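Before the break, one more example. Copy the sequence into your notebook; we will annotate it together after we see the structure.
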Amino acid sequence: MIEIKVGIVEDSIKSREELNDLIKNFQTSTYDFLISNYENGDLFLKNLKKSTFDVIFLDIDLPGKNGFEIAKDIRNIDNEVIIIFVTNLAQFAINGYSVKAFDFILKPLNKDKFNQTFYRVIEELNHKYNNEYIIVSYKSETLKISINDIYYIEVSGHNLIFHLVNGVKQVRGSLTNLETKLNKFNFSRCNNPYLVNLKYVTSFKGEYIYILNNDKIRISQTKRKSFLSDLNNYIGE
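Here is what the structure looks like once it is written out:
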């Protein structure tokens, strides 16, 4: 059984208890949930290191630093942890792009909505723990690349350029063939030469999307509707 480390940052005792109950009652035979509770952001951040948690439930309206400020601090330490805002401030949901929020759950907490979101969390963690790879080969060249390490893939001529967490790699190949393999892992084309891992999109503005590695890529008019639909579906809007 795999242990999922859950952090809850919430100043309301009632909300903390509800979240604990919802998590503990979530049925899975694969994972065991280890839950840590914090009543304010300062206490939480003192205990945060990279990979301390797999998923963090974060209230927005907190004493001291608010949830968005805490989320920015989290991202300076851990780019991979799943952040879910739990809030009654739905009007601020758009701000979640800047900190790569996975989803928002509105108060009062609803079991069906929680389970819907948490199923998606489990799917995301399944991909992470299964450590899935793609193999790209051309003649004597072979690349084995972790799907979780891909920010985006660019095609230039007959070359595939992989922009990765640990650098850039290039091999001959077809983006269309690769797109078929990666559709189920939440990749989407923002224009013909670019296939983007939606988990690393931090924001979009005008004609551009912004990636966690600080790159920006133009959204073409022909791909705009389908790409933004994929992005909205991914973040649970």
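The first strand starts at residue 2 and ends at 9. The radius of gyration is 19 Å. Try to locate both features in your own notes.
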